[in-house]
């Protein structure tokens, strides 16, 4: 498909605010100069073409980054394609496709609930040695139990849900989930750097994740939470494990993708425009445009506003808390990553944006402020 274009097209666009693009670039330059991030990569696209792609700091435009949970919509998009082919019905039970999954009370979990983070097993474990093989993963999933009745509440499933989705892909296609995503989504779209499961020989241009910065001060925490609280002074080692060549090769389906910001901005252009009708148009429109879950997110208290594998911005006072800033339309959809990554598309403006970094900031408040500032500048670049 030739619709997506990696070359830069911004000089002839009268509807793009050049000064706002410069403002976005300047905000990222300021973040690099002030610290603590070692590098940041940004991309902005419209009409299937890049209008901005820059890397600042200790990297260049050939550098790929771990995109963490920005991987989730990629995996979901594979499910959407399989839905269009009649191979998956999200209203059916997971156990319809994976019979052993029903063990330990999980027989009522539907595929839709897994996609929408209402399945009831947010912290279910998956790790070595189980995660190396389909049989090992299934055995681990059979041991999981429910924390609540499926569908009764929403709580983000950082990795567990997408191990189930990966297994569903394998069950209905007979193909390794990484191979299906590559051949069924990435290659047809021509996304040259987007990959889930990177062989060691192809890992040389991936930015190494680094823990940077200091945790938030007591004053910052008290201002935010209204009282003094303790904050861990180190990040979860599980994040730094994504530097491990074997983990990169595994391709953790809930957070192990690698890409450039250009890849991700163009991926969202594909979701906005559906070139070559890669996805069934009705299924795609429903997946990215229909709010299926508006239960409160227990972390923020904000209604989750989740579509079928993506977050939908919505309108009103809660919209800016959903990770895409305050300048996108209510129709914008996307996903954040735990390391400060974000990617989204806005069908109303036609813009898509991605920000990636390899700096795991120990102060998530600072990281959130930076992402919000970048999102707001990106969302204001057209008018």
CATH class of the largest domain: Alpha Beta
How much strand content do the residues show? 5-15%
Residue-averaged pLDDT:
93
User: Based on the structure given, which CATH architecture of the largest domain is correct?
Assistant: 3-Layer(aba) Sandwich
Tally of domains: 2
> Which regions are unreliable across 5 or more consecutive residues at pLDDT < 50?
none
**CATH homologous superfamily label of the largest domain:** DD-peptidase/beta-lactamase superfamily
Main β-sheet, in a few words? 7 strands, mixed
Radius of gyration: 20 Å
Distance between the termini: 28 Å
Which class of secondary structure composition applies to the elements? alpha+beta
Instruction: Determine the CATH topology of the largest domain.
Output: Beta-lactamase
Strand order in the sheet with the most strands: 1-3-2-11-10-9-8
Query: Helix and strand string, N-terminal first?
Result: EHEEEHHHHHHEEHHHEHHEEEEEH
Described by the principal axes of the CA atoms, the overall outline is globular
Helical stretch tally:
13
Helix content: 25-40%
Task: Give the tally of β-strands.
Answer: 12
Task: Give an overview in words.
The chain is 34% helix and 14% strand. The longest helix has 17 residues, at 18-34. It has helices at residues 18-34, 72-84, 94-97, 111-115, 134-142, 160-173, 177-189, 218-225, 237-240, 245-250, 261-273, 281-289, 364-379, and strands spanning 5-8, 39-46, 49-57, 65-68, 195-196, 210-212, 257-259, 311-312, 333-336, 342-345, 351-357, 359-361. It folds into two domains: 5-76 and 180-379, Beta-lactamase (3-Layer(aba) Sandwich), CATH 3.40.710; 77-179, Methane Monooxygenase Hydroxylase, Chain G, domain 1 (Up-down Bundle). The mean pLDDT is 93. Strand 10 (342-345) and strand 11 form a beta hairpin. The strands form three sheets. It has a seven-stranded mixed β-sheet, with helices on both faces. Strands 4-7-5 form a three-stranded antiparallel β-sheet. Strands 6-12 form a two-stranded parallel ribbon.
């Amino acid at each position: 498909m030739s619709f997506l274009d990696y070359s830069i097209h911004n000089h002839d666009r009268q509807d793009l605010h050049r000064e706002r693009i410069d403002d976005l670039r300047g905000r990222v330059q300021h973040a690099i100069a002030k610290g603590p991030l070692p590098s940041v990569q940004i991309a902005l696209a419209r009409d299937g073409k890049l209008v901005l792609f820059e890397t600042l700091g200790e990297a260049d435009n050939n550098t790929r980054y771990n995109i963490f949970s920005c991987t989730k919509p990629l995996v979901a998009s594979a499910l959407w394609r399989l839905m269009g082919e009649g191979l998956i019905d999200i209203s059916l039970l997971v156990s319809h496709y994976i019979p052993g999954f029903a063990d330990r009370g999980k027989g009522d979990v539907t595929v839709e609930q897994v996609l929408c983070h209402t399945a009831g097993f947010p912290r279910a474990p998956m790790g070595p040695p189980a995660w190396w093989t389909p049989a090992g993963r299934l055995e681990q999933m059979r041991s999981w139990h429910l924390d609540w009745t499926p569908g009764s509440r929403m709580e983000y499933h950082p990795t567990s849900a997408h191990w189930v989705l990966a297994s569903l892909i394998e069950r209905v296609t007979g193909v390794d989930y990484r191979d299906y995503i590559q051949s069924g989504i990435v290659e047809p779209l021509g996304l040259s750097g987007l990959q889930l499961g990177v062989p060691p020989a192809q890992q040389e241009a991936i930015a190494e994740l680094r823990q940077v910065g200091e945790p938030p001060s007591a004053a910052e925490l008290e201002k935010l939470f209204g009282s003094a609280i303790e904050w861990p002074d180190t990040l979860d080692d599980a994040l730094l494990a994504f530097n491990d060549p074997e983990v990169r090769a595994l391709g953790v389906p809930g957070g192990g993708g690698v890409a450039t910001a250009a890849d991700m901005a163009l991926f969202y252009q594909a979701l906005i425009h559906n070139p070559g009708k890669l996805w069934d148009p009705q299924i795609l429109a429903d997946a990215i445009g229909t709010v299926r879950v508006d239960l409160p997110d227990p972390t923020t208290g904000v209604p989750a506003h989740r579509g079928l594998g993506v977050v939908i911005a919505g309108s009103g006072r809660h919209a800016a808390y959903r990770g895409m800033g305050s300048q996108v339309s209510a129709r914008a959809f996307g996903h954040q990553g735990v390391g400060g990554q974000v990617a989204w598309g806005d069908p109303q403006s036609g813009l898509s944006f991605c920000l990636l970094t390899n700096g795991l900031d120990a102060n998530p408040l600072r990281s959130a402020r930076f992402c919000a500032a970048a999102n707001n500048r990106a969302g204001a670049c057209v008018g």
